[in-house]
Amino acid sequence: MLFLHIKISIMQYASLDGILRTILTIVCIYYLLKFIGKLLFPIMVKTVVDKAQENFHQQQQSYQRPQNNQSDFVNTNSKSDKPREKKKVGEYIDYEEID
User: Fold this and answer.
1) How many CA atoms lie within 13 A of 36 on its CB side?
2) Residue 87 carries which DSSP code?
3) Where are the alpha helices (DSSP H) in 1-99?
4) Residue-wise pLDDT tens digits, 26-62
């Protein structure tokens, strides 16, 4: 008897009015989020690009500073004294076609 009463009360909530209200709520939330996204997305992208650009400029400045100091030193290591050996990969195998 209790199961029958629960089943009837659930059926009362599953009306056409409730379904339409739920669908309308979902559609309104979707368009609201879409509108807010159109407003906030460009601002977020601009912030991310500005931060990346700032980091890039900082890295460039830190890279250029030590390079200017190193240009005063003379390189005493000469690579032309002893040429490097070529890396040996393996043997060459000649394959023949069989008919």
Assistant:
1) 6
2) P
3) 2-13, 16-70
4) 999 999 999 999 999 999 999 999 999 999 999 988 8
Residue 93 identity (one-letter amino acid): I
Q: How confident is the model at residue 85 (pLDDT cuts 50, 70, 90)?
A: low
The b-or-e profile of 67-84 (16+ CB within 10 A means b, else e) is eeeeeeeeeeeeeeeeee
Q: Where do we find the tokens 């906030």? A: 40
> Which amino acid belongs to residue 28?
C
Predicted TM-score (pTM) of this structure: 0.40
Q: Which two tokens stand for residue 53?
A: 């650009």
**Dist. CA 54–CA 60, nearest whole Å:** 10
Structure tokens at 26: 């979902």
Residue 62 CA, distance from chain mean position: 26
Q: What whole-number distance in Å separates Cα of residue 30 and Cα of residue 38?
A: 12
The rounded distance, in Å, linking the Cα atoms of 10 and 3 is: 11
